[in-house]
Amino acid sequence: MPSGGPQPAAGRRGSLGPVGLVLAGGLSVQFGAALAVGLMPRAGALGVVTLRLAVAAVVMLLVCRPRLRGHSRADWGTVVVFGIAMAAMNGLFYQAAARIPLGPAVTLEVLGPLALSVFASRRALNLVWAALALAGVFLLGGGGFDTLDPVGAAFALAAGAMWAAYIMFSARTGRRFPQADGLALAMGVGALLFLPLGIAESGTKLIEPATLGLGAGVALLSSVLPYTLELLALRRLPAPTFAILMSLEPAIAATAGFLILDQALTATQSAAIALVIAASMGAVRTQVGRRRNAAPPQ
């Protein structure tokens, strides 16, 4: 029940709260990706994905202890598709990161959520923010996508398509399962799918103490924390606005690259980041205004 306090302030908290969850999740996943790039020489791309999903699934299942009974066939179908999308998104992205630099990989991957925002949005203004973010994404690429490994670029674009599917089924899973139960079950599905691939590529390297420890760090930063935050955010934030906010990922990746991998930003990249942030701020303001207009008069 709403309290008797000032309603505008409550509306601001209700609208900006999920945005903060998305931003925190983005920071976590990109710093985890930078750590994963350093782990690939030890375990390979498929091995890193296997460690990430397996450790994350174990942690989430132990913490959430999801109830297995009482769910419909549609509920289980949603979880399975969510798990498949999650596994495919991770596997394709790390295949891209093994072939092209992290910044361009994330830049190409984010085109999936941007496309989702264009097709799913029912407001013309959201198309403007999506177009602005798209311009920033291409500017961040520096116009040099033709110099990238075409196979790596293709993997990144495919990962973006799976990212869009992840957004849609994450929202559906959050509506069908309490707390983070659906997420924990989906992670279990993704881990089971990737386990044979990781074992085939890396074998016993996966259980070496150093590799296992780094893999656990990647799992916590890139899966457990960000996926939980995003699942909570999608319960209160429309998918189109969430997808536009995902355009911040290249900027966050550039920051992670600068702090961890000592990659300096050029003037063009800085301008691109400014465009992407402006688009995200516009999306947030549009969502805040929409909720204020929809609020009943007091």
Q: Uncertain regions: pLDDT < 50 for 5+ in a row?
A: 1-15
Helix content: over 70%
Mean pLDDT: 78
Principal-axes shape call: globular
| Global Rg | 19 Å
Determine the number of helices (DSSP H or I, runs of at least 4 residues): 11
CA(first)-CA(last) distance: 14 Å
Describe the structure.
The protein has 11 helices and no strands. The model is unreliable at 1-15 (pLDDT under 50). It is mainly α and 298 residues long. The chain is globular. It is 81% helix and 0% strand.
Features:
single chain; 298 residues; mainly alpha; globular; disordered N terminus
Topology:
Layout: H1 7-64, H2 73-97, H3 102-109, H4 111-120, H5 124-140, H6 150-176, H7 181-202, H8 209-234, H9 239-245, H10 249-261, H11 267-294
